[in-house]
Design goal:
single chain; 4-stranded antiparallel β-sheet
Length: 444
């Protein structure tokens, strides 16, 4: 049974401060929390990938466990402690228990010059090293004359049954999945410990989108919507490497990131750059009347669309975010900078983009000559809808299997849903066939 919730921020607060690294016990807990809020109809499942297994050109990382980690003076004055904040160590730090001079310690300390009161978040996933993160103001107060004891007791596990996790749920349109229509994939990250905007905000936006598409399914014959949650980059690589058969079925994607801060919306276009998905997204952003900036593929806030829309996959994928923002990758990225209304604004925009793209199709005529409109119940009284009445002839000239419903709506200057509803009447009379949006995906 799906858990009720009072706000998206309340869900985010449940997993915010967990030690969510690429693969960890707290990452597993995060997937469980997400699953408790996903709609039952999504059939939410979690997959396990064995550590060190090969996925394309990558390896799945080991499971990382921190038993304890702290930095103190030689006489026992505690400086930082992992128990207080998971950001206090560089993620994937190896074990150490040494007394060090200041000169030996300094190369292993990290702080933020721009935000001196905050703890920075740093990671060394694929480089065996160690280090502590602390506020610049704390660093400045440390004695250069003392020795310091650095303690990290961490574990790298390669148990194949306890590997890296990725979770997915799929919500189908009314009437069930359409194999011809394919799927649209939405993604967000789960692997950034103690970071609210990056990308806990994207995770909760996805949960809300899943709830909406479950409560109000897309029209019959539309794309199914796949909701993906996992660690950045390696999660998508591992998932697709284990599901290559899924790739040709994907028609488009969206990455949602940094959605809750009081900063401008950023829209990153697909690698194709002028794809149907790009055009729909831009139209909806303009419709909402919000200032936004846009940029080329991987040039605004590059994330997992680099894999979905990258080499050998090529599924057109956009991203929506509010990146950059001042608190990025520090302990200041907390619930205080998350605004519920801004989260919901991103959800509203994303939902409308997806509803149009996923319900769109290419109408192909089965008739010859002018259609007997009134005889088929297709005439529109100009006194009821002047604009649609004036557009009918132009609409019918676009039924040659070359234009999507969105293209036609764009060309006649009418709302997509108005035009789709009208074209559906031709479909119900058997006067057109609905051809699916073709796949851009690469299979080799």
């Amino acid at each position: 049974m799906t858990k009720p919730f009072s706000s998206l921020k309340s869900i985010l607060s449940e997993f915010l401060n967990l030690h969510r690294t690429l693969s960890s016990d707290d990452m597993d807990r995060t997937h469980s929390i997400i699953g408790s809020y996903m709609p039952d109809s999504a059939n939410y499942t979690t997959e396990n990938y064995a550590p060190l297994s090969h996925v394309w050109t990558w390896k799945v990382p080991e499971r990382y466990t921190v038993h304890e980690a702290y930095l103190e003076t030689e006489d026992g004055e505690r400086i930082v402690d992992f128990k207080d904040n998971p950001l206090h160590i560089i993620s994937y730090s190896q074990s150490i228990d040494k007394v060090l001079t200041w000169e030996k310690l300094v190369p292993h300390l990290r702080y933020s010059e721009k935000r001196p009161n905050a703890i920075p978040w740093e990671f060394k996933y694929y480089e065996r090293s160690w280090g502590f993160c602390l506020p610049k103001n704390t660093f400045d107060q440390l004695s250069r004359e003392k020795n310091y004891r650095a303690v990290i007791r961490s574990e790298f596990s390669t148990d194949p049954e306890n590997g890296m996790k990725v979770s997915v749920g799929v919500v189908h349109p009314e009437g069930g999945a359409s194999l011809e229509a394919g799927e649209f994939i939405i993604q967000s990250h789960t692997c950034h410990p103690a970071q609210a905007n990056d990308d806990g905000s994207g995770v909760v936006c996805e949960i809300e989108l899943a709830r909406r598409f479950a409560e109000k399914p897309l029209p019959p014959g539309s794309m199914s919507i796949r909701f993906w949650f996992g660690p950045e980059t390696i999660g998508s690589v591992a998932y697709l490497a284990n599901h290559e058969d899924l790739i040709p079925n994907l028609r488009g994607g969206m990455f949602i990131d940094c959605a809750g801060s009081q900063t401008q919306i950023a829209f990153q276009r697909t690698k194709q750059d002028t794809h149907l998905l790009d055009r729909i997204a831009k139209q909806i952003l303009i419709k909402y009347g919000k200032e936004f900036r846009e940029g080329e593929f991987a040039m605004v806030a590059p994330n997992d669309e680099r894999i979905i829309n990258g080499a050998g996959v090529n599924v057109p994928s956009i991203s929506l975010s509010r990146f950059p923002y001042p608190e990025y990758h520090t302990s200041d990225d907390n619930l205080d900078i998350i605004h519920e209304d801004l989260l919901l604004e991103i959800v509203d925009i994303a939902e409308e983009i997806i509803r149009i793209f996923a319900s769109n199709y290419i109408p192909k005529r089965t008739f010859r000559g002018p259609v007997f409109l009134s005889g088929n119940g297709l005439w529109v009284d100009w006194r009821d809808n002047w604009d649609l009445n004036r557009a009918i002839e132009k609409i019918m000239t676009k039924f040659e299997g070359e234009h999507t419903v969105f293209d036609i709506a764009e060309q006649v200057g009418l709302d997509y849903w108005v035009v789709r509803e009208y074209i559906e009447k031709f479909r119900a009379k058997g006067l057109i066939r609905a051809l699916p949006i073709p796949s851009d995906a690469q299979t080799d």
